[in-house]
Design a protein that fits this description.
Number of strands: 24
Number of helices: 14
Structural class: alpha/beta
Strand content: 25-35%
Strand order of the largest sheet: 22-23-1-24
Largest sheet: 4 strands, mixed
Radius of gyration: 21 Å
Shape: globular
Bound molecules: ligand EPZ
């Protein structure tokens, strides 16, 4: 199995192109099932998860072509055409690998009237049930049965508009219900919705296909169902988690990096934190520039929460930064109940972290030491790469397939700004 080798200590200088957002691209691909006309998605990232979603969609009869971008910073363009839904079965073997597969439920129910989708099950970061998704579809008139690990959903007469309030502002549930409601009969009012930028991106894509949606980016989204949606051409938003990860990389290693294509508006919480602890972030005409001189970052507490608060998907990376900060910080994880698996691995590199329930207390040390490490999800894996950038000696990050799920050409992007990092083939 491939692994990543990093030799710490280099400052970063130069530019990194930011890819399209994984967590938007996957949902736009699933939503392309809603129309029998071709859809073109631009600014697509090249990732293992995108391939997994492509495999799944092809099972339903989706015809797909990709035009590959030539080099780093040249994104892919994907054409998707679901002229006919040939099957509405999402098997366990695909869904268990990638939870975002569950997002095909809304489009399949709305267009095809039924679907059989494997339950995603738990995963490394928590139990992650799908009860809000299922309750929402039931409220829209679908009948839902659970059997042998599968969800059997049926709405033969079509989904019906309703008012539904999510118990928690779940990203996946909001997006699944939105993609069901766009073809439902009448008006759907969704309350306590996710306000994440990727959820807004999906809404804007649906609007480009002819959907009637208002309230995107607020807690209440109102959707008036239409009879059919058309094809559209849409460009995926820049990846705010990749952006945040490279901002933190620059804060950890020190240096000057321009993140080309990055957006400030979707990264407000992190930018505010970085500025408080001694890293400058400025908007440029091409994206964001990040600068930190040799001074050690100061420690500062953070609590993850739904957008626009600090994202859970940057919690592990921020912990890597706090592990070398001056002072003690408390990091509270409120979105997932088990998202501290990177802690024992960081401890192997010399970090001083104590976990008590949902709070990690991090006492910054002056230096980390390189070590062989591995992690069980992609954000945790990348946090170990970031720690490796500043650790003395060599860090080997194993289980690189986690990184390949969500970070396009990570080692090329970091070596392009001066990090000593390479992929070693097994
Ligand atoms: C999305 O997951 C992202 N995944 C996650 O990114 C991200 O961490 C998360 O949103 C929060 O921002 C994708 O977009 C593919 P949720 P999602 O539904 O939709 C509970 C990454 O690394 N919940 O907002 O699954 C749930 O258990 C991934 O790219 C229920 O209880 O997140 C969790 O504690 C990791 N019942 C909380 O809500 C439900 O029916 C938030 O989950 C649904 C969710």
């Amino acid at each position: 199995m491939d692994r990543i080798r990093i030799k710490g200590g280099n400052r970063l200088k130069g530019e990194i192109p930011i890819s399209g957002a994984k967590n938007s691209a996957l949902k736009l691909m699933a939503a392309s099932l809603l129309t029998d006309e071709p859809v073109t998605l631009k600014n697509m990232p090249r990732l293992a998860d995108i391939e997994a979603m492509s495999d799944l969609l092809m099972q339903f009869g989706m015809n797909m072509n990709i035009r590959r971008g030539a080099g780093l910073g040249q994104s892919d363009t994907m054409r998707l055409h679901a002229a006919k839904i040939e099957s509405a079965f999402a098997p366990y073997d695909i869904v268990r690998k990638m939870r975002a597969s569950f997002q095909v439920l809304g489009p399949l129910l709305a267009r095809h009237g039924e679907a059989k989708i494997s339950l995603p099950g738990g995963c490394a970061i928590g139990a992650r049930p799908v009860d809000f998704h299922l309750k929402g579809f039931e409220a829209m008139g679908a009948s839902i049965e659970l059997a042998d690990g599968y969800v059997l959903a049926s709405a033969k007469g079509g989904l019906k508009g309703t008012t539904f309030e999510f118990p928690f502002a779940s990203v996946g549930a909001t997006e699944n219900l939105m993609t069901g409601a766009v073809l439902a009969e009448g008006r759907t009012v969704l309350k306590n919705c996710a306000r994440e930028p990727e959820t807004q991106d999906l809404g804007n894509f649906l609007i480009a296909m002819g959907a009637k949606i208002s309230g995107l980016g607020t807690s209440e989204i109102v959707i008036d169902g239409v009879d059919r949606l058309s094809g559209a051409t849409y460009s995926v938003m820049p990846d705010r988690i990749e952006t945040g990860t490279y901002m933190i990389a620059t804060a950890i290693a020190g240096g000057d990096v321009e993140l080309v294509g990055a957006q400030a508006s979707s990264n407000g919480a992190l930018i505010a934190m970085l500025e408080k602890i001694g890293t400058e972030v400025k908007e440029t005409n091409r994206g964001l520039s990040v600068h930190r001189n040799g001074v050690r970052p100061s420690a500062m507490d953070v609590k993850t929460d739904v957008f626009p608060a600090f994202p859970t998907d940057l919690q592990a990376q921020y912990m890597a930064l706090m592990s070398i900060a001056n002072g003690t910080s408390h990091i509270r994880e409120t979105v997932f109940e088990n998202r501290f698996m990177h802690v024992p691995e960081m401890a192997r590199m010399g970090a001083k972290i104590h976990v008590d329930g949902d709070v990690a207390t991090v006492t910054g040390v002056e230096t980390l030491k390189g070590a062989p490490v591995m992690a069980t999800d992609l954000r945790a894996s990348v946090s170990l790469v970031l720690a490796g950038l500043v650790a003395e000696g060599e860090t080997i990050v194993n289980r690189v397939y986690h990184l390949d799920r969500g970070f396009e050409r990570l080692e090329e992007k970091l070596s392009g700004v001066g990090a000593e990092i390479e992929r070693q083939q097994a």
